[in-house]
Amino acid sequence: MRSLLVLLLAFAIPAVYAQDEPKVANPGDVKFAEFPNSPKCVRGAVLNGDPAKGASVMMLKFAPGCSVPLHWHTPNEQVMLASGTGKLTPHPGKPTIIRAGGYAYMPSKHHHSFSCAAGCTMFLTSDGVFDLHYVDQSGKEIPPEEALKAGKKNTAKK
Fold first, then answer.
1. How far apart are CA 136 and CA 148, in angstroms?
2. CA 125, CA 147: separation in Å to the nearest integer?
């Protein structure tokens, strides 16, 4: 499974995120921080690009029990799980379990939620400026404060 993840990264990332110099980021060297408008139980690090300006690659760590409520992004989103087990729930749709080495693609503006019962780490690639729009079950956009007050699991720190 790790070979599949490396293969996906080797082919998917260079085509979109080409740069002049090689770049290597090992988990122990990466500084994780909270992301704006995200649950406090998710910490991330930008590995390549600038999510505020365009395409980027990020590594995200989810604390055990962490959940990102129903939301969507303007850019297309690709997720590759590096460790743990996650649950991706498209809306409408049925939850799908993603295990370490698994891959998911969410097209622009597709509503979904994500959670990790026992914690997980993922790589997230975005092909444009990264944003996060929370919605209620009817699809109406709601403020982050309203979406994130859903429970203690979203405020627990790792």
1. 11
2. 23
Domain count, the chain: 1
Is the N-terminal amide bond of 92 cis, ω within 30° of 0?
Answer: yes
42-72, pLDDT tens digit by residue?
A: 999 999 999 999 999 999 999 999 999 999 9
User: Given pLDDT bands bounded at 50, 70 and 90, which one contains residue 2?
Assistant: very low
Alpha helices in the chain (DSSP H): 2-16, 144-148
Phi, psi values for residue 68, rounded to 5°: -105, 115
User: pLDDT at position 10, please?
Assistant: 42
What's the mean pLDDT when you consider all of the chain? 85
The mean pLDDT value for 139-144 works out to 94
Q: How many angstroms separate the CA atoms of 72 and 135, rounded?
A: 8
pLDDT at 23: 86
Q: What is the rounded distance in angstroms from the CA atom of residue 64 to the CA atom of residue 42?
A: 10
CA 57/CA 92 separation, integer angstroms? 27
The CA-atom distances, in angstroms, between 46 and each of 2, 32, 96, 136, 143 are 21, 9, 26, 28, 24
Q: Which domain holds residue 149?
A: 2-154
Q: Would you state the structure tokens that stand for residue 97, as one six-digit string? A: 């379990």
Q: For position 26, which CATH number holds? A: 2.60.120.10
